[in-house]
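User: I'm putting together notes for a lab meeting next week and I want to include a structural view of one of the chains we've been expressing. I don't have a solved structure, so I'd like a prediction I can at least talk through. The sequence is below, exactly as it appears in our construct file.
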Amino acid sequence: MPAGRPYKFTPKQLQKGIDKYFKHLEENPMWKYDVVKTGEFAGKELKIKVPAMPSVQGLCVSLNIDYQTFYNFISQKWAEKNKKLFDISMRAKLKIEAQQIQGAGNGLYQPLIVSRLNHLKDEQEVTSTTIDATGKSAEEVRAAIQAIEKARRQD
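Assistant: Thanks for the context. Below is the predicted structure for the 155-residue chain, given as structure tokens.
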């Protein structure tokens, strides 16, 4: 172990803590309430079991560490200091992200929340073309528009 402050976890202890967190999520689902909309049971309230969404924040609470400590675990500097702890922490982060994204894709979790937690963006490229029609005949403007549309189809 390098000189300085000792690590809070051995690799085995960290893995055990992460496993305990995921087991807790499995054993403690969340509940969603909805109402039957049509048919014989219309108006009846439904209690629907939904898997609890994992999060880095929840993992930190479970491990009794702060958020910055976890992000230190997955930093390049930390990878050089303790590869085993880095690998275990990175796998946990990737598992959390995968479960969040799969859950959002399956309608279990709110996609907007998941995209924000995972810093995902939906970007669109918008291009526009302007035509200076000053002093041009209608025929010249039509020809310019047709040329632009033809160029766009070729892209």
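A couple of points you could mention at the meeting. The chain has seven helices and two strands. The helical segments are 11-27, 56-63, 67-73, 76-81, 83-105, 111-117, 138-154.

User: Perfect, that's what I needed.
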